[in-house]
Amino acid sequence: MPRPLDLESPRVLVLNAAYEVLGLASIKRSVLLVLSGGAEMVAESGRYLHTPSTRIPVPSVIRLKRMVRRRPGRVPLNRRNVLRRDRYTCQYCGQKGGELTVDHVLPKSRGGLSTWDNLVAACRACNLKKGNRTPEEAGMRLLKPPKPPLLPLFLSDLKEVPEAWRPYLEALLR
Ligand SMILES: [Zn+2]
């Protein structure tokens, strides 16, 4: 027996008319959008909702028919979200998990701002080693330049990314 469908939790990838990822929606909202003509189904999940007279395919990916601009930077900037963006991985040595701090790449004391592109997850040892220096001065390298998250969703929060989502997420996973 397959697990019962959870209609309320975000399980459907939502694209805008230009096939850009907007975020996630619940099955309920997605099905209503498709039925009302506001969105089209791009990929089915293989599951169905049953009514007395018909069955409705449950979407895995939908595309809104009207153009919605992607609005980057809607994710609140805070410690927790910086760690989430960096997948709980020290951006200097690559250590995953453990006790992580948030490091100002250009130190605060030297005018570094608390912005998405100046904050990274760092393990305690790396943060200590770097001290009041820039990565260059400390001879340390960032795994990748920090950027604002593109999405109102964090892929690292998903247990698994459905195969049907991959073509649309590729640009973001790079
Ligand atoms: Zn480290």
UniProtKB/TrEMBL annotation:
Output the superkingdom of the source species.
Bacteria
Query: What Gene Ontology molecular-function terms does this entry list?
Result: endonuclease activity
Could you list this entry's UniProt keywords, alphabetically sorted: Endonuclease, Hydrolase, Nuclease
Please indicate if the UniProt record lists Hydrolase as a keyword: yes
All copies of the HNH nuclease domain together span: 77-128
Spans through the membrane: none
Name this protein carries in UniProt = HNH endonuclease
